[in-house]
Amino acid sequence: MIFRTLTKESLPGFLDTVSGSYRLVVPEQKGRDTYAFRPYSGFHKVAMGFLRTVIPPKQFFFPPREGLFQFTTGAGIETATDEPPSSIIFGLHPCDLHGIDILDRVFSYGERDTFYWRRREKTGFIGLSCLPDKYCLCKSMHTDFIVDIYDLFLYTLDDVYMVSVRTALGDDLVRLRPDLFREPTAGEIAEYKDRIEEREAKFTRIMDITNLADLLTLEYKSDVWERFSQRCLFCGSCVMVCPTCQCFDVFDSTDPLTNTTVRWRRWDACMRKDYALVTGGHNFRGARPERFRFRYLHKEIGFAEMHGKPTCTGCGRCSETCPAGIDMVEVVRSIRE
Amino acid sequence: MKRKGRENVYLPLSADVEEVIPLTPETSLFRVRPEAAIEYSPGQFFMVSLWGAGEVPISVASLGGGDGPLELCIRRAGLVTGALHGLEAGDTVWLRGPYGNGFPLDLSRGRDVVVVAGGIGMAPLRPLILWFLENPGAAGRVTLLYGAKRPEEIVFREEMDGWRERGVDVLLTVDTPAKGWEGRTGLVTALWQDVRSDLQKAVAYICGPDVMIRAAMGELFLLGMPEERIITTLEAHMKCGVGKCGHCYAGPRYICTDGPVFSYREIRSHSHFLTG
């Protein structure tokens, strides 16, 4: 890893150049307070101050709905063989980079997931520093900083970006415009250090996850689950916007005119009533509190036991999105009380 | 177990349906021949599909290893299994696998074996019994305790007579007897005292409905069978079979890749293993 600096005036030129060599994806403002990752269409559209997109970057490797195979009697099975374009996603905050790390673990557990990796392998990441809002829980989840996954990471200072160049791909990007990058000065390094402390001070809301896995287990039969499941609509919005929720359903649909069947996969949610239903009618998690509870148990315990860390990245999307106003901080606080 | 030249983990192979043998009014044995030979072992499963209907996990009911067809014992119970039941000899079915860990076969060497099955739970245990029959020395005395709701729902009933002739103690019980039923009535877990083996020294392989598995594992443990020799195979809602879709998460494991075969020791400490 090496550090370079890039002046703020140079960023548009840099992104223009990157977009000439890669499919560049950037955050754009959509509604009043909503953002989305979109193909780059000029720097004036890039929402540099954005905090979180509604849909996390998982959509680029694991689309909401994807045709895996197409089958026609006679023609047999067809699957996408086109080479996905080499892509760069710009503007990923540490939480979303941590989310990609989690998905990488899931989709390479045992056998690698063909459809995820064919796009993921062709994608590089330019991280971007951020300042927290009231939903951000990365500090609490220890995902406010990241040392891997990204290729370049831009830390915003007053006049320049302090750029961490982590990988060969990151170096390739810098070499596209070597004229724009230079060694950081002692003053810039001092400013970088000051910014760390300033950012720390801005985390106003903390979710206390001390011994959380144990507390969730001890409170397995708590009425907290019943209480929240009365409010929960089981709409699955929290799952859709979660950067690490990766469950999917697989189903076929047949076009009656062409007699062509497409085998799809689409995002699924453990909140759904028939998620754990098996043929014959047995449902391993039919009751509402069981379904509500499972998401917390899986994220904080089950996954952590399997892969070494909990899956919540503290991005705040679920709390911001929930139509019933269920906030993870409130759930965890109720468990602690 | 390696599937050569198959880069895409979700790509199914075609298999010709050679024969469909009705076993009960709702259950048939499908003998299929995959386009390429597949190695598999007892306790593993395949994702079986028909284009347009979908994919479901089905445990393998044949022993494999020879030139014989791959056998799948399927109960007509849902959308996909309903469509599968429309198949006839000459039709095509699609499958990918085998998946899962399979039964630990070494565990029974030099030990008596108790196979405990309920209903369609006999399907994954059948290749295990065939393994013991074809490999003398693989186990001591083999006892099968099999329970079904009604006599006509007993699968592999004629085949069981053959197993009996080859030395397997076959004890059948039903919930609801019919006219002419001479076997036992009641739960399969009421048959422990009829097992002519020392349960404390034996190995148990169990498959059936969730409640039956729980009861059988717990009772065998209380009867002194060591927990690492009480083996079961679990079912779950599955969409991928390769540890990705999330549906079969059970505590810190996937039933599809870490199982579906588990010992009581592996799952006992997770009091809510099956409910997450």
The quaternary structure here is heterodimer
Content-based structural category of chain A: alpha+beta
* Structural category of chain B: alpha/beta
Give the number of domains of chain A: 2
Q: What is the approximate shape of chain A?
A: globular
Radius of gyration of chain B from CA coordinates: 18 Å
What is the tally of beta strands of chain B?
A: 15
Topology-level CATH name of the largest domain in chain B:
Rossmann fold
| Strand fraction of chain B | 25-35%
Helix content of chain B: 10-25%
Radius of gyration of chain A: 22 Å
User: Mind telling me the CATH superfamily name of the largest domain in chain B?
Assistant: Nucleotide-binding domain of ferredoxin-NADP reductase (FNR) module
Q: Secondary-structure element sequence of chain A?
A: EHEEEEEHHEHEEHEHHHHEEHHH
| Strand proportion of chain A | 15-25%
Query: How many β strands of chain A by DSSP?
Result: 12
When the domains of chain B are counted, the total is 2
**Biggest sheet strand line-up of chain A:** 3-2-6-7-8-9-1-10
Question: Could you describe the 3D structure shown?
Answer:
The complex is a heterodimer of chains A (337) and B (276). Chain A has 337 residues and is of the alpha+beta class. In chain A, 34% of the residues lie in helices and 21% in strands. An 8-stranded mixed β-sheet of chain A has the order 3-2-6-7-8-9-1-10, with helices on both faces. In chain A, strands 5-4-12-11 form a 4-stranded antiparallel β-sheet, with no helix packed on it. Chain A starts with a strand and ends with a helix. In chain A, 40% of the residues are buried. The model of chain A has no long low-confidence stretch (mean pLDDT 93). Chain B folds into 2 domains: 13-99, Translation factors (Elongation Factor Tu (Ef-tu), domain 3, Beta Barrel), CATH 2.40.30; 105-273, Nucleotide-binding domain of ferredoxin-NADP reductase (FNR) module (Rossmann fold), CATH 3.40.50.80. The longest helix of chain B is centred in the middle third of the chain and has 13 residues, at 122-134. Chain B starts with 12 loop residues before the first strand and ends in an 8-residue tail after the last helix. The model of chain B is unreliable at 1-5 (pLDDT under 50). The chains are: A alpha+beta (337), B alpha/beta (276). Chains A and B meet through β4, β11, β12 and α10 of A and β4, β13 and β14 of B.
